[in-house]
Amino acid sequence: KNEVEQSPQNLTAQEGEFITINCSYSVGISALHWLQQHPGGGIVSLFMLSSGKKKHGRLIATINIQEKHSSLHITASHPRDSAVYICAAKPAGGTSYGKLTFGQGTILTVHP
Amino acid sequence: GAGVSQSPRYKVAKRGQDVALRCDPISGHVSLFWYQQALGQGPEFLTYFQNEAQLDKSGLPSDRFFAERPEGSVSTLKIQRTQQEDSAVYLCASSLGWAGAYQETQYFGPGTRLLVL
């Protein structure tokens, strides 16, 4: 079992739909990242959070530390949101160097 | 620079050839990571530098992989005698301070897509 698991692996939506991507982790963390990766492009950090909820535009990220679960929500989805979304756990502990453990990614396709 | 840059963006190598991948982190960033991303998978940790010191190389898959950051800025990942299983996207990330600190976020480069034929 991977330390960080995402669901679904693939997600197709119509423009305007509300989208949720889930991430579960089994390791102790100091923070959790949500990242966006476009085809042929690098990775952009969307959020880093260790508790509660963060919002940026149409993106909302939540985390439940007790349940070791985080979600990324996209409201009013748009075709330009089509990308791979990756959650990454930043482990707790002084010797971890902050190296991230990544989920396998969720491929999101939003149709017009 | 404005962000993390990597070169080349694409590299095709014949099996057995040596390759060198370059990462230019954001100026002044102390921490630098290399990650490997196989097709359809999430990235996986390769190695970590704090300034010029390579503090963790536990993710390097074999002794054919070697990374350096001699002056604490630019880093090079070298792969000797490339194999087909080395085909992947190699991502570099940097952060301003010690990457283990809570407030530190990693800034990723565009990656180098390596194809070994």
In short:
The complex is a heterodimer of chains A (112) and B (117). With 112 residues, chain A is mainly beta. Chain A has strands spanning 4-7, 10-14, 19-25, 29-37, 43-49, 52-56, 59-64, 69-74, 83-91, 101-102, 106-111.
Overview of the molecule:
- The complex is a heterodimer of chains A (112) and B (117).
- Chain A is 0% helix and 59% strand.
- Chain A is built from no helices and 11 strands.
- Chain B is mostly beta strands and 117 residues long.
- Chain B is built from no helices and 11 strands.
- In chain B, the strands form 2 sheets. In chain B, strands 2, 4, 5, 6, 9, 10 and 11 form a 7-stranded mixed sheet that branches. Chain B has a 4-stranded antiparallel sheet with strand order 1-3-8-7, with no helix packed on it.
- The model of chain B has no long low-confidence stretch (mean pLDDT 92).
- Classes of the chains: A mainly beta (112), B mainly beta (117).
SSE diagram, text form:
The complex is a heterodimer of chains A (112) and B (117).
Chain A: E1 4-7, E2 10-14, E3 19-25, E4 29-37, E5 43-49, E6 52-56, E7 59-64, E8 69-74, E9 83-91, E10 101-102, E11 106-111
Parallel strand pairs in A: 2-11
Antiparallel strand pairs in A: 1-3, 3-8, 4-5, 4-9, 6-7, 7-8, 9-10, 9-11
Chain B: E1 5-7, E2 10-13, E3 19-24, E4 31-37, E5 44-50, E6 53-56, E7 65-68, E8 75-79, E9 88-95, E10 107-108, E11 112-116
Parallel strand pairs in B: 2-11
Antiparallel strand pairs in B: 1-3, 3-8, 4-5, 4-9, 5-6, 7-8, 9-10, 9-11
| Low-confidence runs of at least 5 consecutive residues of chain B | none
Helicity of chain A, in percent?
under 10%
Order of helices and strands of chain A: EEEEEEEEEEE
Binned, the helix content of chain B reads under 10%
Shape of chain A: globular
| Mean pLDDT, all residues of chain B | 92
Largest interface: A-B, 27 and 32 residues
Report the C-alpha radius of gyration of chain B, rounded: 13 Å
| Tally of DSSP β-strands of chain B | 11
Characterize the largest beta sheet of chain B: strand count, sense, and whether it forms a barrel: 7 strands, mixed
For this structure, the quaternary state is heterodimer
| Spans where pLDDT lies below 50 across 5 or more residues of chain A | none
SSE string of chain B, helices as H and strands as E:
EEEEEEEEEEE
The mean pLDDT of chain A is 91
Quickly give the structural class of chain A: mainly beta
Q: Helix tally of chain A?
A: 0
Shape of chain B: globular
